[in-house]
Amino acid sequence: MHPTSIFSVSHPLPLRGQKTLYPIKDLMILSSSQETPRCETAVDVLLAGPWNVGEFADLLSSLSVSHGWQRASNCGEVAALLAETKFAPELILLADPLPGTHPQSDVELLRQAAPLARLVVVAGTWCEGELRTGTPLTGVLRLYWYELPGWWASAMNMVQQGACPPWSQPFEGPAAGRTLDGSQMAHSGIIAIDCKLISTWEALSAALKNFGADCHWTRRGELGQLPSHVAAGIWDGGQLEPLEVERLTKFAQAIRECGGVVIALLDFPRREHLDLVREAGCHAVLGKPYVVDELVSRIAALR
To answer: In whole angstroms, what is the distance from residue 72 CA to residue 5 CA?
Structure first.
């Protein structure tokens, strides 16, 4: 088993008198992402909260969703849906754009309505300091919005192997569900890593080699030694200053010409960073610190 490493269907039944529940195929229209879902899964998921706005609107098309997923715009409608239908979600994903959007009473309402479902709060950009200075929701798993695609890809890998998915693991606080089993994941091909510091290169390449990756260090701004074919390129950056964006664009173009996908690792990425990395030619963005298993799964899902 590789150690998990952390670095710096049918349509839903409408509710009486309400029109705020949508099948997942309607949500897909709201997403501006160009990624395509890989396959349907057998996991029943209920989406709660404002999944059609901001950074959340870009996430759903990066997940291997099922047309049986359902959505409600607030926690009260979730409780009503579950009371009036036979839908029994295994997982509830709660979009949380701002601290205080959902009171703790909403969590208790959802737990009573779906006692067997795991509740995962997907925190937006403005929630990044909530764990330090705010009052985060308790009794939930917690992911930042940019962590969800990698976490989901890694979880689906576990489900396909017949292993216990992360939301079914013992609950030990907000960081529960991030200890993933990457023992069956393997990566083939060259991964080019563009970073400033040799210490960053050594740490990232050592972690990826555990998954069978052949890593190549591309020093910042030096693309002449890039192999003729690469499977993926990883850009280790900061907050995307103009010079960084220029160099990222050149790196992404070079990786694409070699047939690879590109992922940018940034410090606390925000919604506007997502637009910048897309314009630069990247396929995805992850925030630092990150879980290596999720990074590997994200690369595999994009290829």
So the answer is: 35
Mean pLDDT over 275-299 rounds to 88
pLDDT at 22 over 70: no
Asked if 47 and 71 touch (Cβ cutoff 8 Å), the reply is yes
Helix residue spans in the chain (DSSP H) = 24-30, 75-84, 104-113, 130-133, 148-160, 198-209, 242-257, 271-280, 292-302
Q: Given strand 261-267, what is the order of strands in its sheet?
A: 214-219, 190-195, 232-236, 261-267, 284-288
pLDDT in tens, 241-251: 888 899 999 99
Contact predicate 58/84, CB 8 Å: no
Contact yes or no for 194/234 (Cβ under 8 A)? yes
Distance CA 250, CA 220 (A): 11
Query: What is the mean predicted confidence (pLDDT) over 58-72?
Result: 78
Instruction: Please name the residues in contact with 146: beta carbons below 8 A apart, sequence gap of 6 or more.
Output: 55, 269, 274, 285, 286, 287
CB 127 within 8 A of CB 59: no
Q: What is the mean pLDDT of the chain?
A: 79
pLDDT digits (tens, 9 = 90+) for 104-118: 999 999 999 999 999
Cis peptide before 289 (omega within 30 of 0): yes
Q: Which of 53, 55, 257, 283 is nearest to 153 (CA)?
A: 283
